[in-house]
């Protein structure tokens, strides 16, 4: 057999064979990789029996601490039950994470699959043609995102903060219903920082888990003695609403130029296009969330009220 023929057979073999994985004795075929982060991979899978498609988040754990964090993510899914937050349908753990033995464990989370993709993808497509979203539609979707964030802030027994709200972490259902995903960054909302060591630990954690262009100022330079609360998410929501209007976070261009995002965030200088289709009300709402001092930012309940007021003003349906 010539080399070309062998190559064709190998390609056919690759196309015909399917990797598979098992979650709680249920088999799934891996169809493709949907995305990859620093700590996990998201796969598109198909149930071997029903042929229904799902997403699987695969987290490879190299230490007991890694595994503890992955299991904590599953627990957060159990605590948050809301139509605008992605549910974890099944989960399982295989292997043993032990750096001494050079062994790893694998945590799998079975999630619904949303074929439309993320809000980030929609904004990227719209941004290429400068095709702005309708203000009423922006506010409808944003209010539902806020409703999802409120579920974290109202969590029992202690409030939670998502800590990485951004367009890439918002999926869109078939009717444009937003679904908040990726609970790997979720943490207890109110954190009392006591000392330089705790401050540095929280700052390092934020640098790992919170996207720079959506990260609150207090997480860039954590003070040695302070209280961090759920209003880190309010800052992120301000950046997200700006992105829904103008396709990117107000700090994305700073990053793209190679300038200091930290300095830009701490100064909170927000530029708006001179010609804009959006009302002053929506700009004021963004500005209210992008206050450098978290004490000056509203809580999620006030944000939702303001969104409802603007929607009523422009004739939106609540």
Automatic annotation (TrEMBL):
* Record GO cellular component, one term: Golgi apparatus
Cross-referenced InterPro entries = Kinase-like_dom_sf, Prot_kinase_dom, Protein_kinase_ATP_BS, Ser/Thr-specific_kinases, Ser/Thr_kinase_AS
Return the EC number: 2.7.11.1
Query: Which top-level group of life is the source organism from?
Result: Eukaryota
| Residues annotated as binding ATP | 58
Q: Keywords assigned by UniProt?
A: ATP-binding, Kinase, Nucleotide-binding, Serine/threonine-protein kinase, Transferase
Spell out the family assignment given in the record's similarity comment.
Belongs to the protein kinase superfamily.
Per its record, how is this protein called by name?
non-specific serine/threonine protein kinase
């Amino acid at each position: 057999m010539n080399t070309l023929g062998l190559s064709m057979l190998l390609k056919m073999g690759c196309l015909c064979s399917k990797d598979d994985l098992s979650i709680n004795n249920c088999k799934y075929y891996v169809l493709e990789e949907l995305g990859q982060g620093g700590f996990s991979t998201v796969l598109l899978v198909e149930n071997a029996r029903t042929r229904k498609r799902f997403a699987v988040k695969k987290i490879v754990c190299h230490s007991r601490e890694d595994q503890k964090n992955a299991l904590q993510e599953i627990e957060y899914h159990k605590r948050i039950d809301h139509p605008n937050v992605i549910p974890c349908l099944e989960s399982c753990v295989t292997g043993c994470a032990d750096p001494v033995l050079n062994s790893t464990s694998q945590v799998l989370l079975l999630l619904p699959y949303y074929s439309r993709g993320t809000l980030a993808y929609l904004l990227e497509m719209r941004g290429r043609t400068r095709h702005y979203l309708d203000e009423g539609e922006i506010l409808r979707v944003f209010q539902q995102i806020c409703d999802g964030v409120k579920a974290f802030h109202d969590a029992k027994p202690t409030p939670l903060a998502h800590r990485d709200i951004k367009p890439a972490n918002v999926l869109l259902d078939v009717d444009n219903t937003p679904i908040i995903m990726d609970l790997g960054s979720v943490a207890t909302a109110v954190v009392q920082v006591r000392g330089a060591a705790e401050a540095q630990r929280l700052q390092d954690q934020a640098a790992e888990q919170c996207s720079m262009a959506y990260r609150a100022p207090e997480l860039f330079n954590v003070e040695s003695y302070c209280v961090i609360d759920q209003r880190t998410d309010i800052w992120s929501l301000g950046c997200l609403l700006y992105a829904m209007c103008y396709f990117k976070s107000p700090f994305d261009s700073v990053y793209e130029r190679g300038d200091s995002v930290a300095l830009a965030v701490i100064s909170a200088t927000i530029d708006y296009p001179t010609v804009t289709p959006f009302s002053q009300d929506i700009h004021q709402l963004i500005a209210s969330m992008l206050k450098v001092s978290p004490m000056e930012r509203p809580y999620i309940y006030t944000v939702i009220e303001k969104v409802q007021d603007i929607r009523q003003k422009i004739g939106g349906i609540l």
